[in-house]
Amino acid sequence: MAKVIMIQGTMSNAGKSLLAAGLCRIFRQDGYRVAPFKSQNMALNSFATKEGLEMGRAQVVQAEAAGIEPMVCMNPILLKPTDDEGSQVIVNGRSIGNMKARDYFAFKTELIPVIKEAFSKLSEVADIIVIEGAGSPAEINLKENDIVNMGIAEMFDAPVLLVGDIDRGGVFAQLLGTLMLLEPQEKDRVKGLIINKFRGDASLLDSGIRMLEERGGVPVAGVVPYMDVRVEDEDSLSERLFSRRRGEIDIAVIKTPKISNFTDMDVFEQFPQVSVRYISDIQDLGTPDMLILPGSKSTSADLRWIRDKGFEEAVNECSRKGIPVFGICGGYQMLGCSISDPDNVEGGGEIRGLGLLPADTVLAGDKRTEQFTGTCCGAPGVFSGLSGMTVEGYEIHMGVTTPRGDSYTDFTSDGTGICSDNIYGTYIHGFFDRGEIAEAVVRTLAERKGIAYKGGDAVDHREFREKEFDRLADILRSSLDMDKIYRILEEAK
């Protein structure tokens, strides 16, 4: 059987996903077959495997850090919030429908066999499995029949590393309070504490660490510095979404309430001249060099939000000025003339689109989830230089978009996108990830602005992430007690 170690946090966004990815890379570097696992993930960032199955992107990133192909058994349950009270429930990569939170809470124990089977499959291909928890194990109102934190630790007899976020303040209260709220047998599973996102001289924490270990009865396994590592974040708490830096080349992304797969823009981080700003207030938009409408879990609701917030006229103004407007998946649907929902996928009815692309979308109950390899067709306008380039990515959407008339050009092959003048739409997530496409976009925007392109030869986003995984591993090796962590692994039953 594979050795197991679990990362739990004192709260959401304590850094569990990134630390799990870093441990995956370290174990891989040390010669082990390693795989990530998260029994239940709640996120709007998802991925389609080679088999056309949907899973959370956090485990995809961790799989890449581990050097293995993403498999849906790494994340057997994915919850994609549809509103404040419910989510689409995806089991083993396929949607089984929408559920209200209370209904799912009563239903979730029926998924325990699914979780056990998925973990068993991973055990056949891995020497070490790095399990990630969700939220906090001390959410006492959710502990009954837990299937993601201590319930999973008990299910697979996993030792736990508990992570606290010092950047938000109160890390000692976070860690001690969590330990105090655990049952004795749960606390016994916590074998090490990690203080994450520390800025400054770590020796200043020495007295606090001694007190933490004395009162908590659990050793500290490391103090991890605040890291500027460009590895994808799991959810909408990502700090990327709140950056206001404006580079020489300014790309603005409309941050709708149900934004999904915002990682589509991460590739631009390798370009020092480029800033990617996520905008939710019309006052912050300004005059960007490129405007992106990203994916959405609730396209119709987000389109209404765009209108309510005054973004519709801003998008039209960008179009009139010749600023390229780019829609991905739900954003592509919004750029069309209409979105109708006869099957009540998103509440039914029909809504007028932004009307910048001659196309109509009909939402349907069947979700399309598959990987894509094709080409960028004869694009007009600003990005005509993309024509003929290979596009690799994946589709995850519910709905069919049909062009109308003849005032458009196919943008991505196989009916996955169209364009007209400087308006571009595609269903392909990861469209920009190939280095030559990202570089062509940035170089074109630089030329339009009359500034010199300084980026050099861009690399594919996968290659860029590989370097970042190694950098992450180097930082963790220098800040974590890896000898202690290996002892915890060896001492586990």
Question: Can you walk through the features of this model?
Answer:
- It is a single chain.
- This protein has 493 residues and is an alpha/beta fold.
- The chain folds into 2 domains: 3-231 and 466-491, P-loop containing nucleotide triphosphate hydrolases (Rossmann fold, 3-Layer(aba) Sandwich), CATH 3.40.50.300; 249-450, Class I glutamine amidotransferase (GATase) domain (Rossmann fold).
- Helices cover 29% and strands 28% of the residues.
- The protein is built from 14 helices and 25 strands.
- It has a 7-stranded mixed beta sheet with strand order 15-13-16-18-25-24-23. It has a 6-stranded parallel beta sheet with strand order 2-9-1-10-11-12, sandwiched between helices.
- Strand 7 (86-91) and strand 8 form a beta hairpin.
- The longest helix has 19 residues, at 461-479.
- It is globular.
- The chain starts with a strand and ends with a helix.
- The relative contact order is 0.13.
- The model has no long low-confidence stretch (mean pLDDT 94).
Residue share in β-strands: 25-35%
Residues in helix, % = 25-40%
Structural class: alpha/beta
CATH structural architecture of the largest domain: 3-Layer(aba) Sandwich
Q: What are the segments in which pLDDT stays under 50 over at least 5 consecutive residues?
A: none
